[in-house]
Amino acid sequence: MTEPVELAGFVLSLAMVYCNIREIHWGWPLAILSSALYGVVFWNSQLYGEASLQVMFILGAVWGWRQWRKGMQSTTPDLQSPSPLRISQLSPTERQQTVAATLLAWPVLAFFLNRYTDSDVAVWDALVTALSLLGQYLLAKKKIENWWVWLAVNIITVGLMWVKSLWLTSLLYVLFAILSYVGLKAWRKQHEH
Asked: What does the domain layout of the chain look like in residue ranges?
């Protein structure tokens, strides 16, 4: 049976992704609310990495909201002419740095979850956590690659939620996977114009 907290998190999460795709900054407060609700759901399901991640999402959403409302990026190589934050792509160096950071974070998180919690899915929980932190960062910076990261997170999380019998949340991540593709296409189109 679906709990009311899970249902409310489900609805708010879908509204959040809709706002993200459309570049509506109100998605960030929705992220704060849905993350708080899912923190409870995941903790009660012994998904401690996911539960802890919700705290990071809340903090990241506060930062992301500020980035989208007041963030600036340089438009010239000499960093003299800032402009409002726009959709962009990672440079090759940035791409290497983000992959390296994620590959370092994953085993560290897995070790922590294996050693200090009773999680029975620590390795997968850690992978989703590491990738989600990366996705949140890239979304706040309006990097197109965030949608690829979220697509990977969402596909893995479908299985993780299924294993934990969180059926509605598993469905949510199926929808998230589809919306990640929609977001990718929308942001690519926007970036080209």
From this structure: 4-72+90-192
